[in-house]
Every structure is written in C-alpha cells, then in structure tokens.
C-alpha cells in the first residue's frame, strides 16, 4: 500500500532528529503547523497514538469533525465516545502497537457511511451545555441531601 505519514506537533524529542531517518519509509515531520485544517482535509486517516495528557484530545475531535477516520489509543480517545462516531473511530489498548497497526489497516479499507449526525449532535454546543447542566444538577442534588 502506498501511503505517507505526516507527524504534526511541536516538542518532538531532539534525539529523534525530526524523524530524518524515516523519510525513506514515507514518514515526515512537519512540526507545528499554522493551519492543521489543511492536513485534516488531505488525510485519509488520523492517527492518535497518545499515552498521556489530561482531558479530551481536541485534535481527535477536530479530525472526526472533518469526517475523517481515526485510530486512537484509549488514553488518546478520552472523552470521545466511540459509539457516537459512526464507525469512524477505532480505539485500541494503550501500548498495543500490533493492535494499533491492525486497526489502521482495517479502517483504511473500510467504507464508512458519511453520516455524522450522532457525532455532531453529541459535540454540539447545546448538547455540551446540556451535559454540563445535568452534571451541575446532579452535583447540587448530592450536596443538598
């Protein structure tokens, strides 16, 4: 299969030398990019192999928002319910790189119906506000009892 992997982001460890050793394998380091939307529009699949960090991973939500397929570790998919992504998100156990690679192969060859209604509903501002309101209501009910 002909493909390329473009790694975007800052703070790549210096010992990786901007991934120069992997260029012959079609792996390129773009560093911090001003307009990530261009990369989302051009890609077939978003890879999210994160192992740490807190909270929801905005780049994963953005990629899915562009209608892209994505493979993520459990840590990288925190806060993004797989069942709301219309089959476009495959989540694998942290550090199980064989499963990650298999998920990439499977998702690349899978035709996904272009129905993002559940995703957009879940991540819409009215839905987010409603979830916060429910959380606050539950919190205030337990405090008052």
Give a written overview of the molecule:
- The chain has 145 residues and is α/β, with parallel strands linked by helices.
- The protein has a domain of 83 residues: Rossmann fold (3-Layer(aba) Sandwich), CATH 3.40.50.
- Helix content is 37%, strand content 15%.
- The strands form 2 sheets. A 3-stranded parallel β-sheet has the order 3-4-5, sandwiched between helices. The chain has a two-stranded parallel ribbon with strand order 1-2.
- Strand 3, helix 2 and strand 4 form a beta-alpha-beta unit.
- The protein is globular and about 60 Å long.
- The termini are far apart.
Features of the shown structure:
145 residues, alpha/beta, 3-stranded parallel sheet, two-stranded parallel ribbon, 5 strands, 37% helix
Q: Strand-residue fraction?
A: 15-25%
The CATH homology group name of the domain at 35-117 = Glycogen Phosphorylase B
Q: What CATH architecture of the domain at 35-117 would you give?
A: 3-Layer(aba) Sandwich
Main sheet: strands, sense, barrel: 3 strands, parallel
CATH fold-type name of the domain at 35-117: Rossmann fold
Quick recap:
By secondary structure, the chain is of the alpha/beta class. The protein is built from 5 helices and 5 strands, in the order ββαβαββααα.
Topology:
Blueprint (H helix, E strand, L loop, with lengths): L4 E4 L18 E5 L4 H7 L2 E4 L9 H8 L3 E5 L15 E4 L4 H13 L7 H6 L2 H20 L1
Parallel strand pairs: 1-2, 3-4, 4-5
């Amino acid at each position: 299969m002909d493909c390329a992997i473009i790694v975007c982001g800052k703070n790549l460890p210096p010992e990786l030398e901007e991934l120069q050793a992997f260029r012959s394998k079609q792996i390129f380091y773009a560093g911090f990019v001003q307009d990530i939307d261009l990369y989302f529009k051009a890609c077939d699949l978003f890879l999210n192999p994160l192992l740490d960090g807190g909270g929801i991973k905005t780049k994963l939500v953005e990629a899915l928002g562009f209608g892209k397929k994505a493979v993520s570790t459990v840590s990288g998919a925190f806060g993004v319910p797989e069942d709301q992504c219309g089959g476009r998100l495959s989540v694998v156990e942290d550090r199980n790189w064989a499963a990650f690679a298999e998920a990439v192969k499977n998702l690349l060859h899978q035709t996904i119906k272009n129905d993002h209604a559940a995703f957009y509903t879940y991540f819409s501002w009215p839905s987010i506000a409603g979830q916060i309101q429910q959380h606050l209501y539950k919190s205030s009910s337990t405090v008052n009892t």
